[in-house]
Design a protein that fits this description.
Length: 1463
């Protein structure tokens, strides 16, 4: 039998692999639905590792991998490898990856299998066990080791580049769990490339980069990668990018991160696409929007890293153009502000600074707030807090910005809570008691109630809290308060039962109580409130503005008005206030005809009260009161005048009613004229007779010097009061009838206008004479004048709780100066209550402050200083007035009325309309273009214009006495309105400037007209001792015009875009008559004549020519012109700062920065001309006392406009000034040797002070520049070092002058400015430290030079203590502290720079300014501190070689040194 042997076939790769695994305890071949059988990994892995290494020649790892590859060809078998063998066990593939011999091949196998499952994108959302691709990636996570990490990472990146989005994000997110630290560089580079190719994986890449443990270099690379994606990333991915960047911020890269976020982040208008698809937002941001997510990302980053906040604030400071600011800046400020702490204050200050500079504008906040209610909602309180902060600022621009924010927030947030918070915040500001804050808050409330009154009615109960603060408000704010409540009441209706009627009822109840209150403080509130209510409910336009249900009742207005008038009928000041308020009301509102008729009937009694009938222009009988005889003054109409103003009989009568009614005469006349104009279309033809009617006043015999002395006190008071009431009557005449000539009136012909203007000029002559007469009488008979207008909080006489009735006022006024003698010595309260009204109304002076401080006041000092000096008045004039207290003497009609100015706040004010008389002349057909006899009239008006410009531009006159302050506030109007009224006067200013110059040039005493002849035509009585000083009147007019021009140019509102036409007109008016285009030939392209820059240059050239002309005969006037030229430059700089662009040209205003160097050059030459010119004879005779303030101003202009201030200071301080200081004689030849006639012993003190101030200011600029040039080129650093050394040399030279100039004032200035200069020098130590390596020698030399000055200052301080020179000793402590800090800063600098051996500390010898050793007991009568003689100072080490730049010495040599160690 034959048996056939069956052949044994070769085992397959799968079987071989299964056999190898079986030897290790793993069963590979199992049914497809079951996982392989696998023992525990800790036993299986070592067993398999040993098995594979048993036969190296058989290459068992390769056979196993081949079998696994064949096994994995089936997807089902592959899943068996990848799925866990049990719920708590790992997959077979994961266990095999722990075998070193198998890991590289198996990783490659799995990566090769991964692309086969890229098409499983349809499986998105399936469980992990069904997703083979994700199972493969899961095998790579958290491996204990990688045998060949580089190869694996390279292949993984290759697979990643072609993977589908779903799997790509899975792999990227798993990289931190797959790759070790050694492969991070390759991973970062791969991810960077991937970001450039696919923007959809940004979030996954950022998460991966955040989870990688990168070193500093790779982290910076990752940040760079992230920054590059800001511009291209999708909006909904931006929050993730921002979180990564903010978390990755370090001190090294935080600046770059913040800068790139600011520049590239697009913030506004980005809405979540999902929310947009749902159409729920309709274009507006919501809490789930992308903007909200971005803000959350920024908020979380800023909250936990102050470094980010500081970097942003620092970055924001460097932005210096409005166009460079973005919306993200506003939000970052808000987020930093919300964090609180110290950075909150920094954010506030920076925001305020940016707003004031105009860099952050309302547009940015509008983009943040408008249409983003839900987004801003979470930050509402931050916005409100910022608004509160801005509203509390002093600057008008900041408060205007706060006004916008409050309005925008109110309009955007309609919920009750937000609006209650906002209104509550405003009421808090209203009750703050700070005037500007209260006023701005009330303006905001008025704006809200005007535009949203119906919406405020539900929260009206909160607004009524304003009524709690009424007592502290002045009149303007009271009007605003009542405006608010009237708006609310009108919105709900005064006569309805709606919710707003409670506001109306409460308002009416409060006003009635106030009007009926006898206390003036409350009565004034009631008067203002009542008239505001009347204007609201009796407005003729109410029918247009409100519905029929809201129509107020006019009878209610009449009843309220009648009650108000009756409550004030028998008291003076409230009635004055009521009449003035009524006049203003009729001027600004069109009221119901019933109201006008009622007021007209009330003022119809004017003629019976104040006027008396005349027969043929004469009194029917002479009036005689005791010894005072009356006569008619100033009759312009002659015999045809039917009436006269009955002043003297009313003053002299003893009846209470007569005296009181004269006080209300001006205010009642004002109301009468207002009613007349309202009923006659602006014409005053019905009362035209009052303009020319005479005044019944005391006879001029009483003004005779001999006659005056025989009058009793009561009679003198009667004369003074008569003149006073006459003055104010004429002032109101000017106010009333100037409306007929200031603007064209329909019913007034040109002939009537001209006749009225002539009469007004004659009345102005009357006013000038009356004022100078009253001023003269008050000088020899001091008297308190009654108030003719209510001043409210600004009047000392109305500060008491009870106002004066007519009787009480008469009793007070009837007491003369003799009452002081009767009251002298009384100490009880009753006596103090009966002090005369002079004492009650006396203004606080500097003498009062001296008395409180215990300073002894001499009689001469009292005479010279007891009253403030008005504009144009010198101390010499005051002394001359005080020398003859009992004689009338000669009266200069143009002298400043000092006595009247002290009580000017009680006078009726001249309205701006009166200034239109500057355009008129009494000589309509004269051949003379300018008349000397009219100069007093124009001078009076120009002085008044100057005062009014102080109110338009308060900064132009920062210091004024109390009476001027009261007058300022009493009739201050809005500057824009004033500018519009003053604008027509520009041509008149030019006319009077040219006329005064021609008269000063002419100087001829012969004149075809004079004051006396025209004074007679105006009806002025002939008073022989009244004269006009012809020599000074033209000069005074010239000065007043220059002063007006300077104040106009300095008005900030003039530079607004709305007032640009007024600015151009002002400049156009003051242009030279000759062509000056040749002087502007250096400009390329040439300046356009219609542009502002051309007009500025023309105005400057005109004043330059004027200065050359007046310099021939008056140095003082030339100096005044120079100051005016400087104001032109200041205006140019202000305009360019407000509108200027980086290219130097602003097309909106037509002004180029190129004109600034041109103007500065011409200004410097003009200032140099004045400083180097000899004085005209008249100036030399006057001496230097009248030029005490001019020389410093000229010198400042010369220095500040020089090409190099440092070089010029060096020349003046080191070369020019020492020549004068060393002069012992006063030879004219010696004094002129330095080339500056204005520098002599009399002006040396001024020069010395100005040079110190300018050097200190220039040095501070250098220090700021030095801190900015730390990282710049070496050339820039060299220039800064050179400039600092020059400034140090100037300071040393100025201090060294004290050795040869022994005036205490000089030494005091050296100590004062010495300490300040050392303080400024200390700020530069950071710069010096960074530059010490390259410029160490120069720095050491600089400090040694500075030490020369500190020695002298130490010596001055020691001598001042010894001699008890209080002028110096008061400045010593601060200077000593500064020098001590300087000592240790120098030591620290040298120690830090390894040069500490060059500095040591020793004891000083006590030496005087000349270097002589002084015994400590030289001041025998002074107990000095022994430590003052031995100050610790830095000294030179004697062992250090001289070629090592020597050492630093501070103040004097040590005891062992004979001479200072200087180079």
């Amino acid at each position: 039998m034959v048996f056939l042997q069956r052949s044994n076939p070769q085992p397959s790769a799968v079987d071989a692999a299964a056999a190898l695994l079986a030897d290790a305890g793993c069963t590979l071949l199992v049914p497809p639905h079951l996982p392989p059988s696998l023992p525990s990994a800790p036993t299986f892995v070592p067993r398999l590792t040993r098995a594979l290494a048993a036969d190296p020649a058989a290459d068992l790892p390769a056979r196993l991998l081949a079998g696994l590859a064949a096994f994995a060809e089936s997807p089902t078998r592959l899943r068996q490898l990848l799925l866990p063998t049990s719920p708590r066990s790992q997959s077979l593939a994961r266990v095999l990856l722990s075998v070193p011999a198998l890991q590289p091949g198996l990783l490659g196998l799995l990566l090769d299998k991964l692309p086969e499952h890229f098409d499983d994108d349809a499986l998105d959302g399936v469980p992990l066990q069904d997703d083979v691709g994700r199972l493969i990636v899961a095998q790579f996570r958290w491996l204990d080791f990688l045998v060949d990490a580089d190869t694996f990472v390279t292949k993984l990146v290759e697979v990643l580049s072609v993977a589908p989005p779903r799997l790509k994000k899975e792999i990227i997110g798993s990289i931190p769990e797959i790759v070790g630290d050694q492969s991070h560089a390759a991973v970062v580079s791969a991810l960077e490339k991937l970001l450039q190719e696919d923007c959809q994986v940004v979030v996954a890449v950022l998460d991966t980069l955040s989870n990688l443990n990168l070193d500093a270099l790779l982290q910076e690379q990752a940040v760079t990668v992230a920054i590059s994606c800001i511009r291209t990333i999708h909006a909904d991915q931006m929050p993730h990018l921002l979180r990564f960047l903010l978390l990755s911020a370090t001190p090294a890269n935080v600046g770059r991160i913040i800068s790139q976020i600011r520049e590239q982040l697009k913030f506004v208008g980005v809405v979540d696409p999902r929310a947009a698809r749902s159409k729920k937002l309709k274009g507006k941001a919501s809490a789930t929007s992308t903007d909200g997510a971005i803000l959350d990302a920024l908020r979380s980053g800023l909250r936990f890293k102050n470094m980010l906040c500081e970097a942003f604030l620092k970055e924001l400071k460097l932005v210096d153009h409005a166009r460079d600011h973005k919306v993200i800046d506003v939000w970052l400020i808000m987020l930093i502000y919300a964090n609180g702490g110290a950075l909150q204050k920094s954010a506030e200050k920076i925001l305020k600074s940016k707003i004031l500079q105009g860099y952050i504008r309302e547009t940015l906040f509008h983009q943040c707030i408008h249409g983003n209610t839900e987004l801003v909602k979470d930050h509402f309180m931050s916005y409100l807090s910022v608004s509160d902060y801005l509203l509390a600022c002093k600057e008008d621009k900041a408060r205007a910005f706060a006004t916008y924010l409050f309005t925008a927030l109110f309009e955007e947030f309609s919920d009750t809570f937000s609006r209650q918070e906002l209104v509550g915040s405003l009421i808090t500001h209203i009750g703050s008691g700070i005037s500007y804050e209260v006023s701005s808050a009330l303006d905001i409330m008025i704006s809200l109630t005007s535009n949203n009154s119906e919406e405020l009615i539900p929260i009206a109960s909160h607004i009524t809290g304003i009524l709690d603060y009424l007592e502290s408000f002045h009149e303007d704010n009271l009007r605003k308060v009542y405006e608010i409540f009237c708006q609310l009441a009108l919105a709900a209706g005064f006569n309805t039962s709606s919710g707003g009627s409670s506001v109306a009822n409460e308002l009416l109840m409060v006003v009635r109580k106030q009007v009926s209150n006898p206390d003036m403080k409350y009565k004034r509130m009631g008067i203002i409130g009542a008239l505001r209510i009347v204007s609201a409910i009796a407005d003729a336009n109410a029918a247009v503005n409100y519905s029929s249900s809201q129509q107020p009742n006019c009878e209610e207005a009449l009843g309220l008005l009648n009650m108000t008038v009756n409550s004030c009928k028998f008291v003076t000041l409230p009635l004055i206030l009521l009449y003035d308020e009524l006049s203003a009301l009729f001027e600004s509102n069109v009221l119901h005809s019933a109201i006008i008729e009622w007021v007209g009937e009330h003022v119809a009694e004017f003629d019976t009260l104040f006027l008396a009938d005349l027969e043929d222009g004469q009194l029917s009988e002479k009036y005689l009161c005791e010894s005072i005889e009356g006569e008619l003054w100033m009759n312009l109409d002659g015999n045809i005048s039917p009436v006269c103003v009955n002043i003297l009989p009313l003053v002299s009568t003893s009846q209470q009613r007569s005296q009181a009614c004269l006080q209300i005469l001006p205010s009642q006349f004002l109301l009468l004229t207002t009613i007349e104009r309202s009923g006659s279309e602006g014409s005053l033809g019905g009362i035209n007779a009052l303009l020319g009617c005479p005044l019944h006043l005391p006879s001029t015999k009483n003004l005779d010097e001999s006659r005056w002395g025989s009058l009793s006190a009561l009679e003198k008071k009667t004369v003074c009061h008569s003149l006073y009431f006459a003055i104010n009557w004429i002032r109101e005449l000017l106010n009333a009838f100037s409306t007929q000539v200031a603007a064209r009136v329909v019913n007034v012909s040109q002939r009537v206008r001209d006749e009225t203007a002539v009469k007004l000029l004659k009345r102005l002559r009357n006013l000038i004479l009356l004022e100078i007469l009253l001023n003269t009488l008050l000088k020899i008979y001091p008297l308190s004048l009654p108030e003719l207008r209510y001043l409210g909080n600004y009047s000392g006489s109305t500060s008491s709780s009870k106002f004066n009735t007519g009787k009480k006022m008469e009793e007070d006024n009837m007491e003369g100066p003799s009452s002081n003698k009767r009251q002298k010595g009384r100490k009880d309260k009753a006596a103090s209550d009966k002090l005369n009204s002079d004492e009650k109304l006396k203004q606080s002076t500097i003498l009062d402050a001296f008395k409180r401080a215990g300073v002894t006041i001499t009689q001469e000092t009292k005479k010279a200083s007891s009253r403030p000096l008005p504009s144009g008045m010198t101390s010499k004039d005051v002394e001359s007035e005080a020398n003859n207290p009992g004689e009338l003497g000669h009266i200069d009609l143009m002298a400043a009325p000092v006595q009247l100015d002290m009580q000017r706040f009680k006078f009726r004010t001249l309205h701006v309309n009166c200034l239109s008389l500057l355009k008129y002349s009494e000589f309509q057909d004269s051949t003379y273009p300018y008349h000397e006899s009219e100069l007093p009239l124009y001078l009076y008006l120009l002085r008044d214009l100057n005062n009014k410009l102080d109110h338009v531009n308060p900064s132009s006159k920062p210091f004024f006495n109390n009476s001027q302050a009261k007058s300022t506030r009493a009739h201050c109007q809005k500057s824009t309105e004033d500018l519009s009224k003053i604008q027509p006067l520009f041509s008149s200013l030019r006319k009077h400037l040219d006329g005064s110059i021609s008269m000063m040039k002419d100087r001829s005493d012969s004149s075809p007209d004079n004051w006396s002849s025209h004074s007679d035509s105006a009806g002025n009585p002939h008073i022989p001792y009244v004269m006009v000083s012809k020599s000074s009147i033209a000069t005074s007019v010239f000065k007043e015009v220059l002063g007006c021009y300077r104040k106009l140019l300095g008005t900030p509102d003039l530079l607004n875009q709305a007032n640009m036409s007024a600015l151009k007109e002002l400049l156009q008016t003051f242009q030279p008559t000759e062509n000056f285009d040749d002087d502007l030939s250096e400009f390329r392209p040439p300046l356009v004549p219609s542009n502002v820059d051309y007009l500025y240059c023309g105005a400057f050239k005109m004043f330059e020519a004027i200065m050359d002309a007046v310099c021939l005969f008056s140095h003082i006037l030339a100096s005044d012109v120079l100051i005016t030229m400087q104001s032109i430059l200041n205006s140019i700089i202000m305009l360019l700062e407000k509108y200027g662009e980086s290219n130097g040209k602003n097309m909106h205003v037509g002004c180029s920065k190129e004109i600034i160097p041109f103007v500065k050059k011409q200004l410097r030459l003009s200032a140099h001309k004045l400083l180097t010119s000899d004085f005209p004879n008249e100036d030399t005779e006057n001496g230097w006392q009248s030029k005490g303030d001019l020389i410093p101003r000229i010198l400042q202009i010369y220095l500040r406009n020089s090409e190099s201030t440092s070089v010029l200071l060096d020349e003046l301080a080191c070369s020019v000034l020492p020549q004068v200081a060393s002069l012992k004689s006063k030879s004219t030849t010696q004094e002129l040797s330095h080339g500056f006639p204005t520098l002599c012993s009399s002006t040396f003190h001024s020069w010395y002070r100005v040079l110190h101030e300018e050097n200190l200011g220039n040095f501070n600029k250098m220090v700021k520049q030095a801190l900015k040039t730390t990282s710049q080129s070496g050339v820039a650093v060299e220039n800064v070092m050179d400039d600092i050394f020059k400034s140090v040399k100037v300071f040393v030279s100025l201090t060294n002058i004290c050795k040869i100039h022994e005036k205490v004032a000089m030494h005091a200035m050296a100590v004062k400015y010495g300490g300040r200069f050392i303080d400024a020098f200390l700020k530069a130590f950071n710069f010096l430290e960074t530059q010490f390596g390259q410029h160490g020698g120069d720095i050491v030399k600089m400090i040694k030079e500075l030490q020369k000055a500190t020695r002298i200052i130490q010596t001055i301080c020691a001598e001042a203590k010894g001699y008890k020179r209080t002028m110096i000793t008061s400045k010593i402590p601060a200077t000593k502290r500064s020098m001590e800090r300087f000592l240790f800063q120098v030591k620290a600098l040298l120690e830090h720079c390894s040069n500490v051996e060059r500095c040591w500390i020793g004891n000083l010898k006590h030496k005087d300014l000349h270097g002589h050793v002084v015994s400590s007991q030289v001041y025998g009568d002074v107990d000095g501190d022994p430590n003052d003689a031995e100050q610790e100072q830095m000294e030179t080490d004697p062992e250090t070689p001289a070629d090592e730049n020597d050492n630093i010495v501070d103040d004097d040599e040590t005891e062992n040194e004979a001479t200072p160690l200087d180079d």
